Amino acid sequence: MDTKKVQFSFFISLFLLVLVLTGRLFLPFLASIAIAFMVAVTFRPVYRWFLKLFGKQRGLASVVTIFFICIVVFLPLTFLVERLASESYNLYFDIRERGLGDLDRLTYYFIHPVQQFFPSFDPDIAGYVQSLIATFVDNLGTIFSQTASFVVQFVLGIISLFYILKDGHIFRKILVRLSPLSDRYDVEIISKLESAVTSVVRGSLLTALVQGCFASIGFYLFGIGHVILWGSIVAVAALLPGLGTGLVIIPAVLYLLTIGLTGQAIGLAIWGIIAVGLVDNILMPLFVGKRSKIHPLFILFSVIGGMILFGVSGIFLGPLIIALFFALLDIYQLLILDDQNKRLTSI
């Protein structure tokens, strides 16, 4: 019996066992770590600025960066979620008690022509909307009922963010050293992953969020209620290529026309075209620059699929997975396709 083979087989078996157990240990915290990674990559320019300001003191720069992120991101996000929950509850009970109200006129203009050809066509729009909002409200209730779990995940995410900012360069060296690929490809993978994450977060998610904010301002100025709720829906629709924001703003304009507010309808239409529609063309190059861009359709499906698979954290995990996929796709082109082309040209 070959002793070396036995030792090697035993080591591989033991290593795989420990690897599986380690994976199971970290699995409950995967979302916190992944989100911390995305936040660290997104706010790396801020961290580097503080690092330069504090004379290369990585720990201090990391702490100040986290405080900056909490003030700029987490506090407004907390307010947004609270208002979103409140407006969703209010709209749900309004529809349950009074129906769609003025929206019944708008739906009539769409449904009545169809009923001329199909008399049995009589969709319960109020019921559909009420059911949709009820499902959303129930999910919000589930989120708030898991407060203790959320607090734990949040604290672990902050701790992960601190060490990713502070020791990210060390983690990068470890990954490059342990990877069986050439160091050149390892660095390329990490670089493209970071570039893809930046493209997703700054280019798509942040741009969509800004469009939602501008839409909320427009709804407020021109008399549309529940501005946070509808602005949030615009932000999600903005992930759709082309006329995503129009899917919400156009019905809002038609609603204002239906109830006789022609001037406000025209104002909202102009606001939607200029303030909301052009944001994408202005902010996308500013946030992303010359980095690789991922098509908004992939971002949309990654967000929805991520939420189905991972819950609320899937909003971040889905885009992270799709970013990793496109990063590996670029490496596949470099590693395999380019090598095949070189072989073909040498024949």
From TrEMBL:
<feature type="transmembrane region" description="Helical">
    <location>
        <begin position="143"/>
        <end position="165"/>
    </location>
</feature>
<keyword id="KW-0472">Membrane</keyword>
<dbReference type="InterPro" id="IPR002549">
    <property type="entry name" value="AI-2E-like"/>
</dbReference>
<keyword id="KW-1133">Transmembrane helix</keyword>
<feature type="transmembrane region" description="Helical">
    <location>
        <begin position="268"/>
        <end position="288"/>
    </location>
</feature>
<dbReference type="GO" id="GO:0016020">
    <property type="term" value="C:membrane"/>
</dbReference>
<comment type="similarity">
    <text>Belongs to the autoinducer-2 exporter (AI-2E) (TC 2.A.86) family.</text>
</comment>
<feature type="transmembrane region" description="Helical">
    <location>
        <begin position="294"/>
        <end position="327"/>
    </location>
</feature>
<dbReference type="Pfam" id="PF01594">
    <property type="entry name" value="AI-2E_transport"/>
</dbReference>
<keyword id="KW-0812">Transmembrane</keyword>
<feature type="transmembrane region" description="Helical">
    <location>
        <begin position="59"/>
        <end position="81"/>
    </location>
</feature>
<feature type="transmembrane region" description="Helical">
    <location>
        <begin position="7"/>
        <end position="23"/>
    </location>
</feature>
<feature type="transmembrane region" description="Helical">
    <location>
        <begin position="29"/>
        <end position="47"/>
    </location>
</feature>
<protein>
    <recommendedName>
        <fullName>AI-2E family transporter</fullName>
    </recommendedName>
</protein>
<feature type="transmembrane region" description="Helical">
    <location>
        <begin position="200"/>
        <end position="222"/>
    </location>
</feature>
<feature type="transmembrane region" description="Helical">
    <location>
        <begin position="228"/>
        <end position="256"/>
    </location>
</feature>
